[in-house]
Amino acid sequence: MKEPIVKLCGNHSLSDVAKTTSSDASHLGFIFVRKTKRYVRPEYVRRWVKKIRPKQKLVGVFIDPTLEEVEEVLHFVSLDVIQLHGNETVSQLLRIKEAFGLPVWKVIHHKNEGIQQMEVFRGVADGYVIDSKVQGASGGTGIRFDWEAVPMYRDAAYQQGVPCLIAGGIKPQNIAELLKYKPEGIDLSSGIEENDGKDISKIQAIMKEVERNVASIS
């Protein structure tokens, strides 16, 4: 089994970026959604990235963005992936891909028709993030869904030839349980925080468990 994708999301300070960059995670995420707890200004991210020069790929998270909003962020930050966390349609995804030429990951909230939602975006989405469905929230809730559904999502994404990350409520105490379901990727934010900042010991605990799990089945 190949090593899973690990995205450490919600970086909103230089200190956060220093901690997440020091790990073996594959992706770092930044939230460009105003009025959210972890919103960051793109000019700040440019400063941090210039100073630290992460080896990880950079993911920008948006909710129902206009092309202008994405363009503004890209003016400051060279993103590797655009992640859409709202009610975007297939045509909106296509417009964003055409405008910027970057891979687009679509967030699917876990519910009965989750797989059908993935089918709608077949051939358009370049990856999926499966997150918990929480009334009035778009993500970052720290609440997990029923992980028995993970193989179903993973296999549906595999059939489309794209990666699938699992998000929502993942933390050092339960990461081993999730890894039993062999997700292709994991997406963490609140589970690696203490006092609203990234916590290096939690990050290290997560990465150690991921490495141990990969070693045990390879």
Describe this structure in words.
The structure is a single chain. This protein has a single domain (5-217), classed as Aldolase class I (TIM Barrel, Alpha-Beta Barrel), CATH 3.20.20.70. Helix 2 (42-52) runs parallel beside helix 3 (67-76) and helix 5 (114-120) packs parallel to helix 6. It contains 8 helices and 10 strands. With 218 residues, the protein is an alpha/beta fold. It has an 8-stranded parallel β-barrel, surrounded by 4 helices. The chain has a two-stranded antiparallel sheet with strand order 9-10. The mean pLDDT is 92. One of its GO terms (molecular function) is phosphoribosylanthranilate isomerase activity. Pathway: Amino-acid biosynthesis; L-tryptophan biosynthesis; L-tryptophan from chorismate: step 3/5. Residues 7-208 form the N-(5'phosphoribosyl) anthranilate isomerase (PRAI) domain.
Keywords:
218 residues, alpha/beta, TIM Barrel, eight-stranded parallel β-barrel, two-stranded antiparallel sheet
Q: Total number of β-strand segments?
A: 10
In CATH's first tier, which class applies? Alpha Beta
Task: Write down the overall mean pLDDT.
Answer: 92
* Amino-to-carboxy terminus distance: 6 Å
Rg value: 16 Å
**Estimated helix fraction:** 25-40%
Instruction: Assess the beta-strand content as a share of residues.
Output: 15-25%
N-to-C SSE string, H for helix and E for strand: EHEHEHEHEHEHEHEEEH
* Uncertain runs: none
Q: So what's the overall shape?
A: globular
CATH topology heading:
TIM Barrel
Overall CATH architecture: Alpha-Beta Barrel
The biggest beta sheet is recorded as: 8 strands, parallel, barrel
Q: What structural category arises from helix and sheet content?
A: alpha/beta
What is the domain tally?
1
Provide the CATH superfamily: Aldolase class I
